[in-house]
Amino acid sequence: MKLSEAKSGGFYRITSVKEPELARKLGAYGIFAGSLVSKVGRGEIELATLKLAIGETTIALSGSMARHLFYSSPSGEKRSIYEQELNTEFTVVVPRNYSKDMTKLGIKNGDSVQVIKKLPHMEYITLVGHKTRCRLSEAHAACILGENRQFSFASKNRDFTVKELISQDTYSEVMAVNGISKGTVLNLEGIETGKSVHLDDYPDMVICTAEGLRVFISAATAEKISAE
């Protein structure tokens, strides 16, 4: 199938690239026939992971979850928490169908919340099960829960046992490909600034490589890439 037809959030192996010049450009970024990549919609990437304060507790909330939270403006209009000013207290509105995962993070409908920071793209270099290494984004780390903290706040070079995975509808394939499930022992080796490049001026989607590189491409470019 063409990469343009592939479902967002899934992992795919590149089988061929239609144009030699495009193949050369992708190859410069380590993407060849046989490469395993994930495809993400541009809108999902642009929703930053948020650092929130709920009382004395600080959490990280991935964009895939934060986009479902709202607050009421003074006029009574429902607005996304992405429109809220930083460090300003507001009452959060949690839709019922997302309340279960939000509760696991300590967020309940009607809580008083502050957006502290919009986190930049970061890569968590992680040892999985004391055997293999992978790179997790700040959004992935926010969806991995341990005994008393998220992997976002894991101590470096200390074992972190996974107790729960949330936002499974969005990140289940990422976790499965990297061998992460309940009971898996992770070890954070370091955090690096995430890297990204724009292959096209007006991108519609993003290819994410195993090395953590985000390549922004247009739908027209995705039409020229075949994957399975």
Automatic annotation (TrEMBL):
Gene3D superfamilies reported in the protein's UniProt record: 2.30.30.90
Name recorded for this polypeptide: FeoA-like protein
GO-annotated molecular function: transition metal ion binding
All residue ranges annotated as the Ferrous iron transporter FeoA-like domain in the record: 1-73
Pfam annotation, one family: FeoA
InterPro entries: Fe-transptr_FeoA-like, FeoA_core_dom
